[in-house]
Structures are given as C-alpha cells and as structure tokens.
Amino acid sequence: MTSPPAHDSWSSAHKLTASHLRLTYGGRTVIEDLSLDIPPHTMGSIIGPNGCGKSTFLKAMARILKPASGAVMLDGEPITSMPTRKVATILGLLPQNPSAPAGITIADLVARGRYPHHHFVERWTDKDEKAVERALALTGLTDMAGCPIDRLSGGQRQRAWIALTLAQQTDILLLDEPTTYLDIAYQLEVLDLLSTLNRQEGVTVVMVLHDLNMAARYSDWILAIKDGRRVALGAPDEVMTENLVTEVFDIASTVAKDGSTGTPLMTPAPLHSLGAHSVRPR
C-alpha cells in the first residue's frame, strides 16, 4: 500500500483500523471478517457492486453501526467505547442522502459542523466563524450562504454537506459517494478539494466511489469488496486490473494507463456486443 506523503506540519497521526469485522443488518450478515488498516494522511477508495456492504462498512468505521464481532479501533481504543464528542472532533462522516431540517440555510447547516468543538456553556467564537467561512469558500458557496437547503439543486446540496464536514475540521474524513448528483465538472472540483486537504493539510480521506476511474485517479489505495468480503487491497495499479473488474463486477473490460495521469483507466466492454462471452449471468 502507498506510504503517506511527507509533511513537516503533521505533528500527530490519528489511526483508524478495522479488525475482523462482521456486520449484520436485519439479521443478515453484510460484512464478513473484513480488516482494514488505514494509513494516516492518505486518500483511499472503497469500491464494489451495489449491495456488497461498502456503506455498511463505512458506518461501522464511523461508529454509526456496532459490529456483531470484531472491532474498529481509533488510536488504539475501541471506537464504540469512546465519547461521541471526542470521536466527532477526530472523525467526520458524510453519509449517503443526508437530511436537513426544512428551511435551514447553507450557513446554518455548515455551522453545525462546529458542534463537536463546543461544550454546553461555550459560545460561538471567531475560530468557529473562520472555520465556517473557510468551508463555504472551499466549496464555492460563500455567495449562497443565506439560501435555504431545500431550494438548492442536488449538486449544490451535496457541496453544502461537504462544507459541513470541512467545518468540523477533523483529521479523518469518511465520505459515502461524495460525488452523487454532481456533474463531471463538480465531481472533479470536489475530488480535487479533497485531494488538496489530504496533500496540503494531512487529512486522511476514505471514500466510497462508484466511478472506478475516479477512484484510481485520486486514491493512494483502493479496497475492493464483493459479497461482504475483501477481494483486493493495494495501490490503484495493483487493484485495478481486468481480472479484478471481472471478478468484482462481473463484466469484461480493458484496463490501460491514462495518458494524462498515469493511473489505470478502465473501459468496460459493451454488454450487448459480448454475446456468449459475457461474464454476467443472463
């Protein structure tokens, strides 16, 4: 797996690991014996077909879901035994399809990212204000801060939620499909933003992504899951192979090197032209 890039200003490294996790949902096992040691200060992606357990795994890593067995450790301590506020100052989660109160503005939503840094008697500070302003600026929402969330397009709403996680100023970000609803330009902007936070500020980023080429382009490491089990873990050029795509997604493909980035570039074979050679059951 790729080593984290060096940065002189990183004084500490929060460590998030999963050990032999078994996760259940509705009495059904979704994740079986899955382990992951996330290198601090790296940017990684989790890939796999729909229903394979990616989002469930991310929820367990964020302490939203308690494992049936195994453990998630944050800095060597079981995350399920840690105070919620402490976890929220270290780790931020952007789930799929988050919901907000009706009528809340972008600024008010993003300000909620500061709650973990407050105790009951503490007031809003200049530090809080600057954190919110920075999050709005980074996501291009400064001029829209007073707009209600429910009047936004899907892409604008997604950027507002990303701004909330940025205002939280955690050292680890877990994002479940952060490019949902975004057109290609905004997808690149969001992923470039996360890459900048990772490379310049040392934020550890873990994303669930459906776009394999985006995962390969922006990740130091990729975890591939199928049927709740780990299939592969490693650098993009180790994981993104034609055999892996067939094994995990049941499709034929061609994997070449992207001429502009040098990262793997996957092109799926058209299913209608495969005939008897299609690997997906009919």
From TrEMBL:
Asked if the keyword Ion transport belongs to this entry, the reply reads: yes
Enumerate the Gene3D superfamilies for this protein: P-loop containing nucleotide triphosphate hydrolases
Name assigned to this protein:
ABC transporter
GO-annotated cellular components: plasma membrane
Q: Biological process GO terms, please?
A: iron ion transport
**GO terms for MF:** ATP binding; ATP hydrolysis activity
Organism ancestry: Bacteria, Bacillati, Actinomycetota, Actinomycetes, Bifidobacteriales
Where does the ABC transporter domain start and stop, copy by copy?
Answer: 16-252
The way it spans or sits in the membrane comes to: Peripheral membrane protein
Kindly list the residue ranges recorded as spanning the membrane. Answer: none
Compartment list: Cell membrane
Q: Which organism does this record belong to?
A: Bifidobacterium [indicum] DSM 20214 = LMG 11587
